[in-house]
Amino acid sequence: xxxxxxxxxxxxxxxxxxxxxxxxxxxxxxxxxxxxxxxxxxxxxxxxxxxxxxxxxxxxxxxxxxxxxxxxxxxxxxxxxxxxxxxxxxxxxxxxxxxxxxxxxxxxxxxxxxxxxxxxxxxxxxxxxxxxxxxxxxxxxxxxxxxxxxxxxxxxxxxxxxxxxxxxxxxxxxxxxxxxxxxxxxxxxxxxxxxxxxxxxxxxxxxxxxxxxxxxxxxxxxxxxxxxxxxxxxxxxxxxxxxxxxxxxxxxxxxxxxxxxxxxxxxxxxxxxxxxxxxxxxxxxxxxxxxxxxxxxxxxxxxxxxxxxxxxxxxxxxxxxxxxxxxxxxxxxxxxxxxxxxxxxxxxxxxxxxxxxxxxxxxxxxxxxxxxxxxxxxxxxxxxxxx
Length: 387
Fold this sequence. Notes:
By secondary structure, the protein is an alpha/beta fold. It has helices at 8-19, 27-38, 42-54, 61-71, 91-97, 139-148, 168-175, 218-223, 237-242, 273-279, 301-305, 309-315, 341-355, 357-361; strands at residues 55-58, 82-85, 127-131, 157-161, 164-166, 183-187, 190-191, 208-212, 230-234, 260-266, 288-294, 326-334, 365-373.
């Protein structure tokens, strides 16, 4: 069929609808559907092709061939704006990395897989999401793939997940080439905390930083630029398993442009670090504070004390945190037997409000979102690798 009898805007809406959420829907089904749309008629081809190549997710060998097609086609490569790589490269390459010969005599890593050797030619790539589901000891051999994307002129967002860098120096050197990066997200990444390292100052243009259950290393914050405007610190199971207990956050005082901060704590472990972090905030631009509490199982007076909200009520009512105009609080709680979801939510919300009388008195906008689950379900805040 040459052309559709439907109006163009209706056709576009249909194609947009079937393309779904690029990262949450089944990627294989999404690709098959968009390919069918592209073959429907001439008038559907352009929009379907745009949706097909706008966001690319590499998860198996077939999709490696798919991205090879993209980089070898000059008219397709500029369409790719987001790329997610979340799989072992291929069996042969993974086996090579596990051998003593994986590193050459010069100390160089093995060559990149053919599908990725020219991936940096995606000139309009804005976001890269990179991580592998394999033994994290291979991370050092994967870093050249990450750094190869630093040459992409439009890259602004980088997410690294499930990578073990070993040394902090390795992480910083990996990030150093990304001079134009504005957003960095490290999820489930580890490195040696409190390590003395050489003077490396990466990411000079960074404004958004998120550490999602990665190594809880306050010294890492000292290597990040003072340009950061939004910050997320989530201490979860990874930090707990490593036994890292942060003692102070002096580096936060450098972030004089900070406008928003999110702090996430596991209620079954240390929560005092939240107060330590807040104590070091001195940004006059700070307007928003978000607090997330996972594993909120103790709803007694002692449990609410562990949120540190009573102390924060005083801290948020005087300098230097007086500038904060909005406070958002989320909790993740599991029910015991015979408890009603609605009743528990109302109780949590009322108790949190009563714990913050000074904050409410000075007109701060207060948002409370209790999440309540059955006792046999996981009730931690979800780690979003991409969004």
